[in-house]
Design goal:
Helices cover 43% and strands 19% of the residues. By secondary structure, it is α+β, with helices and mostly antiparallel strands. A five-stranded antiparallel sheet has the order 3-2-1-4-5. Helix 2 crosses helix 3 (83-92), helix 7 (153-166) crosses helix 8 (171-181) and helix 8 packs across helix 9. The radius of gyration is 16 Å and the shape is globular.
């Protein structure tokens, strides 16, 4: 089992990234909460990992903090929640906001996450109530203040739309969300963050 990787950040294209560890390139998928904290391409980075083995693929997921990975693993134990929904939840809200949704039984906030319907939201509330101790409280809110090189106005918007689609949003919704969060000066990660906040804010 691969539990942690430390290496040079080769690229980051939400939700995918690559780490070069001793000459071996590891492809990972990560939530936006992790992307907000990644250093610039070429800098060293350390990620806690979770390996998901399926019949058709082996996918490695990366997280900035061990507690974040713990929450992801707890989410996977909920019936009807797979890795894709887990990434979408961790991308759309930090652990404190998620814990708040569970404690307040806020189904409406949960169903704004792509892939979550009313029944899945209800299962999350019921099954995650007793699993949040030591998880949500150990994760600080995402600041998004790490270094993030821009890729050009048009490129940033296109990258943001692609990332939102990869997280499960319909193309038309991803386009609308990204454009409403873009002011022409933001990086792709800033656009994504603003777009996700617009649908998951209390």
């Amino acid at each position: 089992m691969i539990g942690r990787l430390r290496g040079e950040l080769v690229y980051k294209r939400p939700p995918q990234l690559m780490l070069d560890v001793g000459g071996v390139g590891y492809e990972l998928e990560a939530p936006m909460s992790t992307f907000y904290e990644l250093p610039a391409v070429g800098a060293p980075a350390t990620l806690f990992t979770h390996l998901a083995v399926r019949e058709d693929a082996q996918v490695l997921y990366g997280f900035a903090r061990e507690q974040e990975r713990g929450l992801f693993r707890s989410l996977l134990k909920v019936s009807g929640v797979g890795p894709r929904i887990g990434l979408a939840i961790l991308s759309g809200m930090d652990a404190h906001r998620f814990a708040q949704c569970i404690e307040q039984e806020d189904e409406d906030a949960l169903i704004r996450v792509p892939g979550i319907g009313r029944k899945t939201a209800q299962r999350l509330i019921i099954e995650m109530r007793d699993r949040l101790d030591g998880l949500g409280s150990g994760l600080p809110a995402v600041s998004g203040t790490g270094p993030r090189p821009g890729s050009g106005e048009a490129g940033a918007l296109a990258d943001a739309i692609s990332a939102l689609v990869a997280l499960g949003y319909k193309p038309v919704d991803a386009n609308r969300m990204a454009r409403s969060a873009d002011d022409g000066t933001k990086t792709s990660e800033e656009i994504i963050r603003g777009a996700l906040r617009s649908v998951t804010a209390p």
